[in-house]
What we know:
Structural class: mainly alpha
Amino acid sequence: MAVAPLFFGLLLLVWLALGTAGWTLAAVFTRRPTFLALAVALGAAVLGGMLPALLGWRTPPALMCGLLLALVGSAAAAWQTETRIPGYKNDGPEQKPSGTGEQDA
């Protein structure tokens, strides 16, 4: 029995779980979870997890760096996606539309 496909499948599941965790982390802070951000986070997690191996680094520390890259990369990708979707309202002070006739003091 080949162990390599089994190990890759297990690793893929771990990367997807870390991508979902990163998306959840970003969704908690932006309070606007979307499926687009989930898809971007999962893609970033898989790419971040594979990056050390693609660069030729295949040691246990590379595996740990890949797992950390998967979590951080997915959270950053989900955060950027969720905050750049049109209609996103920031929690800051509201801006008055110009031309309302009200003068600023």
